[in-house]
Design brief:
Layout: H1 2-5, H2 22-29, H3 33-42, H4 44-48, E1 54-59, H5 61-64, H6 71-75, H7 81-89, E2 92-94, H8 99-103, E3 107-109, E4 115-121, E5 124-127, E6 130-139, E7 142-147
Parallel strand pairs: 1-7
Antiparallel strand pairs: 1-2, 3-4, 4-5, 5-6, 6-7
Helix pairs in contact: 2-3, 3-7
Length: 156
């Protein structure tokens, strides 16, 4: 809890993490290999290397493992790039928001245009169906939060 109020990097972050952009921070972490690949495949990686600031709710590799069998492979096909981009954009917020700041909200608007509900229960923060498990990973152009499930936007 006290670490959520701290502005310095936590002991789980590499000291140089604040010099890397969000994409490079996710890639260097080791828990976000699938997410990093999906960012590249969707075309969102170039955007997230920009000035920002961005808040990224990054599903861990274990979170991608909870998807229905074949779902990730389907998204990664070139003909499904738009659908993959919509899913990835549903995990990105404009601005830099700490876990403590997100926990005070009831919903956040993602850059794909849809809102995701937020529920705070004790010290746990849920965004959509995912729980924030690794808060406040600093980067040069925003902040990354690890989540335990891939949130899927509703289709119009």
């Amino acid at each position: 809890m006290s670490s959520m109020h701290s502005t310095s990097s936590t002991s789980t972050s590499a000291p140089s993490s604040a010099t890397r952009n969000i994409v490079d921070t996710a890639a260097a972490n080791g828990s976000f290999k699938i997410f990093s690949n999906a960012l590249r495949q969707s075309g969102l990686a170039n955007t997230l290397k920009g000035n920002g600031p961005f808040t990224v709710l990054a599903p861990t590799d274990a979170a991608f493992g909870k998807l229905p069998p074949g779902q990730l492979d389907t998204w990664l096909k070139p003909e499904n790039k738009d659908e993959l981009a919509a899913v990835m954009n549903y995990h990105v917020l404009a601005g830099r928001s700490s876990a403590a700041e997100i926990g005070k909200l009831t919903a956040v608007k993602t850059i794909n245009g849809q809102s995701a509900p937020i529920v705070m229960s004790g010290s746990r923060v849920r965004i959509g169906d995912a729980e924030l498990t690794t808060p406040d990973i600093a980067s040069s152009n925003g902040v990354l939060h690890g989540i335990d499930k891939v949130n899927i936007p509703t289709r119009h």
